[in-house]
Amino acid sequence: MRGLVVVIFCVATLGLQGQNWVSGKKAERWSEVEYLDLSKMKMGKTGIPDSLWQMTQLKGLNLSRNKLNALSGQICNLTSLEQLILNRNDIYVLPEEIGCLQKLTYLDLWSNHIDNLPKSMETIPNLKKVDFSGIVVFPERQDELTKRFPNTELKFNKSCNCH
Predict the structure, then answer these.
(1) What pTM did the predictor assign?
(2) If you average pLDDT over residues 31-35, what whole number do you get?
(3) Which member of 66, 102, 136, 163 has the lowest number of beta carbons within 10 Å of its beta carbon?
(4) Pair type for strands 106-108 and 83-85
(5) Which CATH number is 6-155's, of 3.80.10.10, 1.20.210.10, 3.60.10.10, 3.40.50.720?
């Protein structure tokens, strides 16, 4: 029986800014990680390491507070992903490839700039909740999204003090 593998990084203690932290002789061990918290890693300047997209067993990924402005289409490699936390970044658009995440149940977009979701996301069967808190989404856009995602709870909270 496999054990749950959880990894939480802290930039201050590991000093990993800008490094390819999932490489080297022990990189194969990273494939066992199921939950990865990379919040506050300042990846907006360096970008998300390509090696992250090789962690195919990930069920939960937290990339919050990284000043990211885009998400790679390589996200589709993470086919086991159930929870994706992207809050407090500077993302305007999600890649169409996000529709490959067929096991995704929760998507946290809180305090980004996204007001629309890719058409490909309509095919994600288990998507239960998308959090748009802190994003100004006009009422007509809210209605459109609600119709496109009838089985998904869409959380809109404009009055959020998110910064």
Answers:
(1) 0.82
(2) 87
(3) 163
(4) parallel
(5) 3.80.10.10
